[in-house]
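User: Fold this, then the next.

Assistant: Folding the first:
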Amino acid sequence: MTYRLRRFLLAPTGLHLLCALCALLACLPPLFPELCPQGTEAQVFRYAGYTLMSALIVSGVLMLLSGAAHLLRFNNLRALTQLLKWGSIWGGALGVFAFTAFLADVPAQEAKAEHTPIQTSDTLHPPHDALTGPDALTIPIDTTDAPTDNVVATPNLTLLENKHAELLRTYLERSPRWQGLQTSDTFYSRPGHPVLVPPTASGTPGLVHVCFRHLTEGAPLPEGYTVIKPGDPFPVTESDTQVADLALDLGRNHYLLLAWRGTAHAETAYKALNAAIAAIDRRMQPLVEHPEEETITRMLTGRRSYTGDAPEIRFCEPAGQEGVYQAEVYVNPGEEGTLLFYIRESESGELLRLFSCPAQYSDQSEELFRHDIPGSVPSWSYNRALYPYLPPNAPVFTIRNGSDHRYFGVALEVWFKPADQRRHRYRLLRRCYKVLPFDDSFMSESPVSGAASPVDTEEKDGADVSCPHFPA
């Protein structure tokens, strides 16, 4: 045993070769990242680094012990020989590594991200860009021909309730626009619901907040709402009094809740309410014409691509829902990869939010694909602990929590990371906006529960509409 240990210490050439081989194998994942399972690159690289350092340390310690043992025995030539063997083995390993790295064609190190804008200035734009996707919560309406005496008819909603109630419920439960507010009668004070905006020439602007509500048999009606039916006269409202919140009875315990917030002028309010009811009813037309699951899928997807040659960001703060935001990104990277959506403070560059989703692409250079933020972001990325006041599948996001009501600037950056792990990400565009942090101090009730089934994208209500700034 003593003889073997002495021989092991005096001539560890075989162990040097074994350590060098382990070190070379550890270098393969960084040189060929495509060998790593998807999503485990960082972990594999870390263990490869541990293996490489361990092999170097073990071999170096063995070389020192061997050299010291020979020197203590006054055998200087043998000590020099062991040092030369150790140097030759690791020199050969370094040569093999260099040749392998040449074959792997490793790209240069990624340059540090710059925060200088692509456009000529850092003008802070207001977040009022019109969104075209199906998750958009701000919906413009036209009150020009809306009546003021009776509630307008709802032929599409009524037919769906009577003949295809389950299809209608399936659509409403899967649509992020209509999800998440099934338990709050004061939904109009919470973010994440559609708001229909009538045109305002002058005076106090008005908004119609809407939400669908399905009641189980025997459940009480929403408290504080006046129940009406299509075709009924509007309730009489005293002069200079805000009109009552309405629950439009669609039949089968299904209601459309409507809350007008604006001028107390009854005629203006009733025109807006009727225009809102008619607009929502029109959006159900595709499901009436084709009452099947495929129609729901088409409505939840909407138009995905538009003609254009320059990437674009659309950023919106839904009307009446200060401090929460929606965004759409129109890009076509032309290859498989991941789209990264960074939100940074414009002055310091501090990262405030980060979203990512698979990029849609084609080989048509003049085709831009719509990516909904956060609609196309996987549902597992939602952090309930940080954002308890938003439904799990809410089509909106906040940028920064707090009660500070002062506006501040943010830079929205869109980056693309190719699927090829050896290639670096690169930035597609950058634009700056003026935003307001969300104040959740008024959210005193328990968090709203959302629908259980996640959905990546939603509808443009089945309509093939043109995208502003892009020719159809």
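Now the next one, as you asked:
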Amino acid sequence: MNILITGGTGFLGGHLVGELSRTFKTVYVLSRQQNLEKFKHISNIEFITGDITNLEVIAFEGKVLTDFLDSVDVVLHAAALYDLAASHSATFLQNVVGTQNIMHLLNSMKNLKSFYYISTIAVGDPDTFFLEENQLPVRSNFTDAYSETKYLAEQIVRENPSEKFVTRIIRPGIIVGDSVTGKMPKIDGPYYFIKAFEKYAKALKYTPIVPLSFNPRAKLPIIPVDHCARFIRLLIERDDFKKALKTYHLVSSESPSLDEFLGDLNNMVGAKTYYFAVKENKFHNSLLKLLGIPDEVLPFMFSRLSYDKTSTLEDLPEINESTYSSFKHILFGRS
């Protein structure tokens, strides 16, 4: 079979292309660029010129376009704008309008068997206790453009099922660096804390107690990028194309609590500081800002969410192989 992937040039997308090239006859990578150097070692890739923010996503026309669309068996929509500095309008254009345009394109694919949409666990309401796989929670309050626009995009996917092909929604957790190399292209998620602890390591060694605004029992739902890409490949390989809609939560087992994570940060810098948990307040939020922790990270510091994995465990028992204890030494830069 042949697969079309959007977002193949991104962090997760790059790993996905490598994984999917092992399974599919041809991996079509939708991109505004051509012949990217990092994919030169993969022989069964074809670059398709296009832009998801355009209604006519693909630059082909006429019979060339029709023949291409008829050759696609699976579509994996992984493209998204995740940039804390990006405007709401830019994020909306990429994440919501881009998803609408891809779904419009799907209707022209006669032989399409399945559509995989990469969502995020950030669609969950941090003020609740449980995120079900096969439901989108009712929420209207968002602290950042990314979670809001990904929520709206998933809503569009859910509310527009097709009788011609099956739809799969994948919600990865907080994606961290490669579990083997530790490679991570940017500061994000838990890396804000790692950077802050490295910066203030000397001071922490002489600071016995630090009041910190957080919920010590909040879980960090992280997953290494290579694990995430492998699991997505396995789900696609095993698809029986039967049930119309399925949702999967890709979160590593044994997700660390914030208390455990802070303890591991202490070990990283050789500190023995005790972090005294206080309720969320403006003063301590300001302290977090001084440490370089952006507002968008705060919901995870107070989240009470746990994640349903019923369908995930049924179709992907390997999810239990991804454990925090097995990759945390790489996360904290230790061999």
